Known about the structure:
With 151 residues, this protein is an alpha+beta fold. 31% of the residues lie in helices and 38% in strands.
Amino acid sequence: xxxxxxxxxxxxxxxxxxxxxxxxxxxxxxxxxxxxxxxxxxxxxxxxxxxxxxxxxxxxxxxxxxxxxxxxxxxxxxxxxxxxxxxxxxxxxxxxxxxxxxxxxxxxxxxxxxxxxxxxxxxxxxxxxxxxxxxxxxxxxxxxxxxxxxx
Length: 151
């Protein structure tokens, strides 16, 4: 359970439907002022996002942060690549894991932790169609058991 100093901005529920999440990492983001103000109003979408590792840097790609309403001419580009702030050892570890077949890095949630914008990224393996059906059947069975217990 997140402590009370963490406040969620956006979450990527679709990622849990499409991927098995094996590991999670916390990363900071290099943002502009209007991006931070827009995030404080909860204007972010992680649905199509992914993480690209380029050399010794990690980049958050295709994440939409809406332009700030009062930004004027200094507003940011909504889908620009944003640099992730990770330790060099973490990036080196992720490079080795992503090179394995079937693994990818996806953003799971974006939140403020002690007034710093953070993103939780997950190392995921893609689910097949039968895996998705099996996961839905398990969730239905769990829901039915909860209903029976309540009665």
